[in-house]
Design goal:
Elements lengths: L2 H30 L42 E2 L13 E4 L4 E4 L5 E4 L2 E5 L3 E4 L7 E3 L6 H6 L2
Antiparallel strand pairs: 1-2, 2-3, 3-4, 4-5, 5-6, 6-7
Length: 148
């Protein structure tokens, strides 16, 4: 037995893998099929009406839509998750996400904290103060969007 005869299986294995990869790659192209451009849909010519046929009713142009005034957010006497302030005459404003204290100007309550708008935000543990200044990031999101 010669050295070349012993080396024959090694040559086959070196050529076999690239050959299999080439055949698989070309086989995918054959199985794909040709590509055809999609056709445009057939269009019908415009209808021609004769005097003996009734003319279809024409649609009147719609007037431009008028913007509707914003509806006030619904009032609720209480929120199922947030308790109302102690002893406060208030209602839950769903748009603001807070209790609005009635009889007080721009004072709101949520989760044991009172918020006041007076050309800027402040907060307190009591509706009478003392008030600590904050910015819109320190108040509930609905309040921050409404007053700025």
């Amino acid at each position: 037995m010669t050295v070349q005869e012993l080396d024959l299986p090694a040559r086959r294995s070196r050529l076999g893998l690239p050959l299999i990869g080439l055949l698989l790659g070309l086989g995918g192209c054959v199985a794909q099929g040709p590509y055809y451009e999609p056709r445009e849909p057939d269009r019908e010519p415009p209808a021609v009406y004769t005097p003996s046929q009734p003319k279809p009713q024409q649609q009147r142009p719609m007037p431009p839509a008028q913007p509707q005034p914003a509806k006030p957010a619904p009032r609720m006497s209480a929120h199922p998750r947030f308790a109302p302030p102690p002893g406060g005459n208030c209602y839950w404003d769903t748009g603001l996400g807070v209790y609005v204290l009635e009889g007080e100007r721009n004072i709101f309550y949520r989760e044991r904290i009172y918020y006041r708008w007076d050309n800027g935000w402040s907060y307190s543990n009591s509706p009478h103060g003392p008030w600590e200044p904050t910015d819109a990031s320190g108040v509930p999101a609905g309040l921050g969007r409404r007053f700025h």
